[in-house]
Input
Amino acid sequence: MIVCLCHRVSDRDIRRSVESGVRNFEILQDETRVASACACCLDCAREVFDEALMKAGCAGRCEGACASSCASACGKACTGVVVRATAQVFGA
Ligand code: FES
Output
């Protein structure tokens, strides 16, 4: 499904970015340009991104201390700061 019509970014593109190690929405935006024009897709893009983070085992609670305190054991080096607690989105 296309999430961002302005830049033709699909849910698959977002999941692929997370699988490759992106853990920060702003970095996702830098890579894909999602939600960087009209921003109508912002909520949907964040939902897909957060869901992909959860699947990747990233709890999103590190608040910038990923390298030293992440307990998700995803095996990937974080590429940035996760600024939202994904658990809030999914009620975990
Ligand atoms: S639909 Fe994504 S920026 Fe416009």
In short: Residues 81-92 have pLDDT under 50 and may be disordered. Residues 42-55 form the longest helix (14 residues).
